Amino acid sequence: LRVYMSPRATDSRAREKAAEGEMESSGRIIWEFFFIFLCFLCPEDVSGKESEVLFLIRDQMSPTTKNLVSGLVYSLSAQGIEKESVKRLTNFKNYRSFWSLLPWTLSISQSDSNYKWYIFLEPETRVNISKLSQFLQGRNSKDLHFIGHALKDRRPIITHHYQLGIQHPFLPSGFLISEGLLDATVNHLKNHRLGSDFQIDVAHEIALFYSRTFEITLQHQDEFCIDNSKNDKSCISSPVSIESMRKPFGEELRYEDVVIAVKTTQKFHDIRLPIIHSTWAKDSPIEIIYLSDDAHQSKAVATVDLTKLYGVSVNQNRGHCAKTDAILKYFIKYYFEKKVLVIVDDDTLISTEKLMRVLNSYDVSEEMYIGERYGYGHRASEAHTTGYDFITMGGGVALSHKAVMRRNKCLRCVCPSPDTPDDMQLGIWMQYLGIPALHEGGFHQAQPINYHKYLLKHYEAVSFHRFEKSPSTGDIDHGATEVIFNKFLGNTESDSENAIDSKTQTEIKIKGKESEEISSEDPDHNNERKVETRPSKDDL
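Below the sequence we write its predicted structure tokens.
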């Protein structure tokens, strides 16, 4: 009727065209209503829920992480999640401290506060969006919800500050918080500091924070699965294997490209070094050097006296910054051709085979600083101006040649005092140089008993720190230490059969080649490559 009454329709042809246009418009409207009607009849559509959830990926700038994140993002996209609802930690400005989670919440509240639910994911986490959508139905996002797969300590452990009874999430399965809990967290953090200066196990620390601040406990859900090797259709989330995505980066690193420096001292030469030799050093394809404050020679080991090159300040009862500073200089002066330096304590157990697998996944021609990452001084209200990350020395720290060179050339990179904690000071130097501390879950600052069995299963162990001790005497138990090494780090069953009893004292043979003699000139490096011969045992 509107068409035919229109003054513009002055002839029959015009009226026909107008009628055709009106019919097309009416047809579109009818089809739109038809599809809306179908949506009410169909089963629940996941896309209707996706905008309510923000997916947060706790990633870092390592090659294996990038491979894992690519798989996660593709999986989410294939299930209908729009890219605007997926945020990577490394895409945030000033993200350095965000891996410790609580500082991240402030930034999230400023940029993405319009979501009802926030799910924190590791790069290896995979999510079933349909199951997640069903799970969230009927839950009030305004309430304080903290949901995941709960782990709980059976005994007080050092990495959790000896706090018992705190259920904390298994991070590889991810965990979920509501908008109500995010808002409460942000309001609290604006006026309060974090509970601890150290950030060690962030899953436990965020659970402890919520318990103390809001008196809420992690809500355990089996559907946040520990693994999904059997393809359980009920899983909301589950992790994939990290090692399955660990690929060699470029040209393969050779054993002869790496050197392991064992940081030791005179009083432990006869106690600890024989255990290192009988576990991982005796058959090591990687060259090992023992750097100390005293020259020691046995059938098993020969140590280098760094005090003859770098002064008596190398010998400290604690902290050991001067000794680590000397090791970095010693590496460039006498091992210039090596591509990677790995520093471990004299009570560190390590698998050289698994270490090489990790190192091979990095571009060692660039700056590299990897191991078990801790944080110090991160503040949620000042995340971009305070705090720093560092790699714990007990679990071992791996540095590329280029990273060591930059540190050694840095005029500001000096020890505040000879006994400053060396791993923390190394973290400060690396942060100043813009070299990030990259976390590898297989490096461990403590003994296996300090880690949940699910974590030990998920992260392929590379190292552990501290030898086993006899419960009755408190002395190092050589046999028990070898059992632990063979169980978690050994490569063959025959290794465990060869474990010696703690009461048996064995003579172990020296491994390695004799060094050539050098002059006693100033050991500090210069900008030119200068190939120096290594010190002989007589010199050092």
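Residues 12-41 form the longest helix (30 residues).
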